[in-house]
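Researcher: Here's a chain I'd like modeled. Treat it as a single chain, no partners, no ligands.
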Amino acid sequence: MKIQSLTLLTALMLLFAGCNSEKKRDNPFFSDYTTPFQVPPFDKIDSTDYLPAFMEGIKQHNAEIEAIINNTAAPDFANTILAFDKSGKLLTKVSKVFYNLNEAETNKQLQSIARQLSPVMSKHSDDIALNEKLFAKIKAVYEKRQELASDSQQLRVITKYFRDFERQGANLPPDKKDQLRKLNEELSMLTLTFGENLLAETNENFKLIITDKKDLEGLPQGVIDGAAETAKEKGMEGKWVFTLSKPSMIPFLQYAKNRDLREQIYRGYFMRGNNGNKNDNKDIVSKIVKLRVEKAKLLGFDSYAAYVVDENMAKTPANVNDFLAKLWTAALPVAKKEAAEMQKIIDREGGKFKLQSWDWWYYAEIIHKEKYSLDESELKPYFSLSGVRDGMFLVANKLYGISFTKRTDLPIFQKDVETFEVKEADGTHLGILYLDYYPRDGKRGGAWCTDFRAAGWENDKKVDPVISVTCNFTKPTADTPSLLSWDETTTLFHEFGHALHGLFTQGKYTRTAGNVPQDYVELPSQINENWAGEPEVLKAYARHYKTGEVIPDNLITKIQNSALFNQGFETVEYLAASILDMDYHELTDTTSVDVEKFESSSMNKINLIPEILPRYRTTYFAHIFGGGYAAGYYVYIWAAVLDADAFNAFKSSGDIYNKELAVKFRKFCLAESGDDEGMIQYRKFRGQEPSIDPLLSRRGLK
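Model: Modeled as a single isolated chain. Structure tokens:
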């Protein structure tokens, strides 16, 4: 049932209008946090605190906007732009906690609150973006920006806000603004529902329950033990349970000899949101795509992709498509060769079946062993979670001089979360880092980095960031610590790269500090992955969890030699998803989309081989239908060009810890990343345009 946002807002206001002052004092959000470093007091926050804090936050934010509008002095940077930039403090404070926990530690209560808030927050955002009087003030400053801005950063902030308001519909006539409000409200609810459905499909609606030990044939003992632990947690002791979380599913696909069960678990994965049940996402996707076309046209763009990419380094969908096509042409033949190699193994073994998508991991692992004498299970004992964590800390220390001290006195939102104080080389406090490692029912899949407080400035004083990295890694068992696969190892380095970006961010203005184009966002994370596999880095952190033995040279050589392994598959499945994303968002008409036919047509157009599925099929493509990557999934490989080129600078210098380069990278690409356009900042570091050659060489596509 659709609830009108104004009605709901009024109801919520009435519900909490009676909150007395004592209640407000008890609400942790209504006063400064008294915790060390003013981190959120998770142990004091109750779910009943959120709605009152949101409503008070909206009230205060509205009052701040009214104060800007009613100021009788001529609009200038301080009384308009800066005042707007620093507004909404309480609303930001509660939002940072609520929305992060709704992703990492949700429950039915939080999901209910999120649904109540969705139309309210959509309305509040539109009330600001479509406020004619506020826009008039910002426009007045923009028109005199050359004389009102005291430096280049003030000029940039003025320009960014003016463009923001234009892009959010400030110039639309009243009837079109009303239409935009309705579109935004409906889209906010649909994307929320998409995510809830996917969470249920992933964590609740599928389990592979094994009762016969024969069906575990081929699986390493650690994987078997993990499945037994999962079964025990779910009240099925004596059985083995595999789930759709990747730390559970991928090892099963790699090692299980029972082909029927491999198909069963992979089909459970790739059919998420497409099972014709209450969590089916096909109709939701069709509505989202249709509404996004309407929104783009309303704002003066032919397609939603044109609207999104206009703000990115790529500038136009045509540039994105040309870029993806070049990579596709290089990658598809490599993937076909890999498939043919696997089919030969099947035929050699008398399999008498054609390679299918659920077979890929299994035969890729066989090739890995045969071609490179490398078994993933041979590597994992050297990659304990604590060791990998300490390794990434060591790299950051050698590059940037920062240190990490574990804290046990900070409130945490879940028992397995670790916290660290981050300090500069001179001992100055830099920020706080939360690390949340393992899958659980209330956490969405994947890995991500966010913050509970962003770096910034308040009352001429620097505000230190509180950064959070969230992952879904292999859990420890009774006998072994958490042992990471190579993919999980690079994932932790990746997300930590985002964390470094957040920790190092500088800038006095919220709008620009650390704020970069979407196709630049992954540069800080992806470049950090490169250090994980360097021999001298591996020798520093990869130690056998039982013996403490440093990873031997022969294993390092195998890792290096197998760097090009399976790159056809990995590149093709990623590019297929990127192309599918662009196809959806380059639609220019509002005809309802048949999701299954559309996806099939999109993949047939590029001749995707049937043995490979796009990394994300439509109904579980959370990046674009439940998150902020619509018409932007391509950004990972766009940024990969930058990261390969940037790391090549370190390698070419002969010192992967080159201090001069590290200082420049931190300054121009991390700390001051929002000071200018993305490519300008990159050129300040590199001294030249990036080359695509290092990426092609790294993936064996050249």
